[in-house]
Automatic annotation (TrEMBL):
GO terms for molecular function: methyltransferase activity; nucleic acid binding. The keyword Transmembrane does not apply. PANTHER family: HEMK METHYLTRANSFERASE, MTRF1L RELEASE FACTOR GLUTAMINE METHYLTRANSFERASE. This is Methyltransferase. SUPFAM superfamilies: S-adenosyl-L-methionine-dependent methyltransferases (SSF53335). GO terms for biological process: methylation. It holds the Pfam family Cons_hypoth95. Keywords: Methyltransferase, Transferase. InterPro entries: DNA_methylase_N6_adenine_CS (IPR002052), N5-glutamine_MTase (IPR050320), SAM-dependent_MTases_sf (IPR029063).
Amino acid sequence: MVFGSLSIAFDATVLRPRPWTVHQARWAAELIRAAPPGPVLELCAGAGQIGLLAVAGSDRHLVQVDADPAACRFAGVNAARSGRSRRGRVEVRRAGVDDALRPGERFALILADPPWVPSDAVGRFPDDPVHAIDGGPDGLDVMRRCLTVIGRHLAPGGSAVVQLGTPRQALTVGADSGPLRLQALRSYRPRGVLALLGGRDG
């Protein structure tokens, strides 16, 4: 499928790329231009399309993390299609959110695309792999783990753009974000929302 300027490969074993999430990639691309030096991180990357489009106009190194082997395979394929893997600018790590990064790694910009559908609502999306959309009782189980990683690995002056399902979820994340601050919220309801997080001293 076409995702922004990219041709993205995927199949039914991974979450089908949502066209609306082009907005997450474009917001990230805007932020990258003024971000401090350093690489970009994408958590719960799936087939990799959001991170790849975000860095398409820059020379930033991109690290993509997903626990699912099929997602990582497609992320690698799509990085190769984009030409970035040939230039050594994309690294795909098959790992959980909690153990993918080394203690000293810092990122100028972090994307997080976690499952955010509450467990009792996953039946509304029969075509989607359950593991790719089930976010626990309130849809925020994986997002809370992402927040911990963002808090530890965001470079000073950096920012994070995270994807959620509802404004209420975003406000909950803002209240639970520890050293981070909810800086902006963009709604694309009923499809989803995007939240911008940054350091409270930034």
